[in-house]
Amino acid sequence: MRSRDRDLIARLDEGLRGYAQRTRPLPGIDSVDTRRALLEQMAESVHRVEYVRVIARRDVSPLRADPTNALFDPVKAAIFHQRQGRSDEAFWLVFLFVHFGKHLRDGYQLARDIYGRLNSPPPWTWELVNTDPRRFRQWLASSQDRLRTDGVRRRFGNHRKYESLDAWSPVGTGEAVETYTQWVRPFGSHEGLIRDALERAGDGPRQLFRELYRSMSTVARFGRTARFDYLAMIGKLRLAPIEPDSTYMTGSSGPLSGARLLFAGDPRAQVTARDLDRWLVELDDQIAVGMQVLEDAICNWQKSPQAFRPFRG
Predict the structure, then answer these.
(1) pTM recorded for the entire structure
(2) How far is CA 118 from the centre of its chain?
(3) 110 assigned to some structural domain
(4) How many CA within 13 A on the CB side of residue 91?
(5) Are residues 80 and 113 in the same domain?
C-alpha cells in the first residue's frame, strides 16, 4: 500500500470512528475485515475522482478529440474542446460519455463510432445534432445493420448495459439524444441552461446541482445514476460550478444496499432512502470526501463487504 493511501485510510478511519461514537453507530463495519474493505474502497474512489481532476489540468492532444483516431477519449475530448472555447461540444461529449459508458474490453469504441459516424466525417457535433436531431436519428436507423454485423465489438459500459441503440424507440439512444437537445435548446446553449438554473437555485454549487438534477428528469434514459454521473462529471471538469449535494439514494440499487448495510448491518433493512441520504451527508461532514466518493465506495463495497475487490467498468 502506498504511503499516501496509508495516510488517507488512517484519516478516514478516524472519521468513521468519530462519527460512530458521536453521531450514529455503523454496524456494517463492526468487524476488522468489513471496516478495512470499506476504507480501501473509499481510498479507491477518492483516486478515481481525483484522476479526472488531474487530467483536467494536463495538456490534451487533439487526437483525443478525433473519433477517427483510436486514441479518442470523450472525457479528454471534452477538456480539449472546453479549452478551445467550445463549451457546448464539451458538455455534449460528457453526455455521450455517460450515455454509452466505457466498456471494460471495448473501451470507448461505441461512443467513438456513433459520434464519428462510423469513421465517416464530419462527426455528430453538438451543432449538427442540436440543429436537426431527427437527422441524427435517421442516420442511426440506417446504420443499424452495419452496427450489428460489421464484426466490430462495441458495447455499452457496465452502468449502461441495458441501453439500446434503437433510433426510434422511446427507450433507445435516438430518444435519449433528442430529449437531451430539448432539455438544452430553450436556453440557447449549455451555459445558458446553467445560468437559468443558477437564477432559480440561488448561489451555491450544491443547490445548483440539485436544480439541474431535477430539471434533467426530462432526458430519456437518464435516470438516477446517469444524471448523477453526468452532473458530477461536468462539475469535476469545471464545466459548471456544481457538486453533489447528496448521494441521491432514491432509485438506486447498489448504493442503497451499501448504505443499508453500513448503517443497519443488513443490505435489506427497512431504512428509507431519504434517511440514508441525510445520514451520508452527516457522515461526509465528518470525513470530507464528497458525495460522489461515498456513493461510489458503498456501491462497490456492498458487492464484497468482507474483502476489498477493485471494480472496473
Answers:
(1) 0.96
(2) 25
(3) yes
(4) 21
(5) yes
